């Protein structure tokens, strides 16, 4: 291996292999032939595919299926340059050697029957499908042909509904990572959004097929957007000084026109397109990277396969309905400058290094596009879990014209408002006598209350997205939830129980305190309660610390409410000192036991 994987990349690799039932990664439980990797653009999904390939290609042949012919070269380069994996291409005029262990091909090519049938039906043991949300029927034809291959589809959608659509083709979601997780871990730069007061009506723009997807007609877009070029150039000059701007226009001719207008306003801008010689293109790209000019504009040339870390601003004048295309464009501006985080182990230190660098953030310039058709992609689509959250985020961004808003802060504000609304509903429900008595009798909380107390955005936005998610919860899940004081009757389905269980286990592994302890801390208005360990919580709460197990926990007793007789019984249990060190320390404090043993 020539490059050390990031922690999450190694975790994604191991999770995919475990989902497939491949040993030694498989630790038991259910396995699946097909799964989804849901991870943002710029997070290194090609590296993850390469890590999986490196781990198991000696067990069988591996196919990486790119969306189009032109997108095969980049994964081939990364497999070889970063991981030392030799690949061969099956695309257009290039034919792969049938003995090659690793093939990178295009869906364009493999969807042709005569190219598909070059390979025996059992030729490939493993298939990765890039851009899994696109051309799903074509991809499924290839997957069905290689009927014994284990499959992983890669996508970058935040929308649960879109993941749910993929459940007709893939059995489970193996691994997910959000944009904010990458920002919080210090692997990409924070995203800011600045909305310009330029209102463009797209309702009359026609829809055409673009790479097999419905998207806005480029000629119509050109006609609709061109009248605003002067105003946009003025705003760029005023608000984007010192930034390296990547601009997308519907057509080559519109890119050339916008560059001319931008230059007339004193913006050092250049146009680039595929018709230029390779030498001229490289000269322009190198000049932009060296900051010899401020703005580079194209039609679609730079949306994929181009990395330029100094580029920090996106001006997208080609509005799109394609989630994949939108994410590809945004991904061009998120990379950290070279050397800034190299060798830094702690996430907090990486974030500080980014904040102190010449590229502390990325900026999306957002125009007020209007359309009668749902599907226009914007900043909110990078992170919103559902349509309701998307609309709330988009509304906040649209009402802050000219101000650069941090996308994560906006999302947290929307989340807090949603939590407040849900808490009000929960309190109203709790006032009902029968519900209050039921909860008191069982000593349990609802799944909703657990998610609210933990401020867990993923649980609050939970939707079943894998086939098995909709199954009833198992007896084992029910018992685990009850042991952790969560009412299993409030859990939607098996998938919901699985995610809650993972959250509980994750907190235990991170040495974070339990739900009941967080409730006790918040009752005393202690900030950041969910980030406390049990020991830290005990130091804060003292005798008001909640008893953690058994009948006293079920009765919601604190340490001060436990009678002496119970402490006297507990000190005589062989397991108490080992399994309950916090309680043992408390018993020493109150004089039930000596520090060196039982009185």
CATH superfamily of the domain at 191-407: P-loop containing nucleotide triphosphate hydrolases
Helix content: 40-55%
Overall CATH class of the domain at 191-407? Alpha Beta
Uncertain regions: pLDDT < 50 for 5+ in a row?
Answer: none
**Name given to the CATH architecture of the domain at 191-407:** 3-Layer(aba) Sandwich
Radius of gyration: 27 Å
Number of strands: 18
The average pLDDT score comes to: 86
Distance between the termini: 59 Å
Q: What is the CATH third-level topology name of the domain at 191-407?
A: Rossmann fold
Widest sheet: strand ordering: 3-4-2-5-6-1-7
Which structural class matches the secondary elements? alpha/beta
Strand content: 5-15%
Shape: globular
Description of the molecule:
By secondary structure, the protein is an alpha/beta fold. Among the domains are: 7-177, 3-Layer(aba) Sandwich (Rossmann fold), CATH 3.40.50; 191-407, P-loop containing nucleotide triphosphate hydrolases (Rossmann fold). It is built from 27 helices and 18 strands. Helix 1 (7-19) crosses helix 2, helix 15 (387-398) packs across helix 16 and helix 22 runs parallel beside helix 23 (534-541). The radius of gyration is 27 Å and the shape is globular. The chain starts with 6 loop residues before the first helix and ends with a strand. 40% of the residues are buried. The model has no long low-confidence stretch (mean pLDDT 86).
